[in-house]
Every structure is written in C-alpha cells, then in structure tokens.
Design a protein that fits this description.
The chain has two helices and three strands, in the order βββαα. The protein is α+β, with helices and mostly antiparallel strands.
C-alpha cells in the first residue's frame, strides 16, 4: 500500500501568485514549471515580468556589500 498517491492532474497553483519561468521565458500564474526553472512568487504579473532585472540588481547589491565580500575586491571596488 502506497503512502502517497501521485495525482495525475497537474496542479495549476494558487491564483494570484505569479512566477517567471526561466525555461519558457514567460510569466505564469501559479507554479506551472519546476521550482528549478522559476523565480517567484510575485504579487503581480508586472513584478514577475521584471524578475530577471530584480535578480540582477540584487546580485549587484550583494557583490558590492562588504558583509558578503570575502576578498574585499569583488565587484570592481578598490578594496582596502
């Protein structure tokens, strides 16, 4: 007897949660693709459409943040 049953129907996710699918390069309502291939959830489709820009901006902030900068000279900074 199986402990868990596999649903044959794919879940469409929750209405009102928006994701950006990296594989299909589009905004999707609910988690339609694997977590590995999506960014989100976002509150609006417009926020999800800007997911790549948001991720790039955060990466740049973290690259410049001394608390996360192990070598003291990452991100083009002059270091100490």
């Amino acid at each position: 007897m199986a402990l868990f049953k596999r649903s044959k129907q794919k879940s469409a996710g929750k209405p009102g949660e928006w994701y950006y699918c990296l594989e299909h390069k589009r905004v999707e309502e609910g988690p339609q693709c694997k977590a590995l291939n999506r960014l989100g959830p976002y509150a609006t489709p417009e926020e999800a459409a800007r997911a790549i820009e948001t991720a790039e901006a955060r990466n740049e902030e973290w690259d410049e943040d001394a608390r996360w900068n192990d070598d003291g000279n990452r991100g083009g900074g002059s270091g100490s």
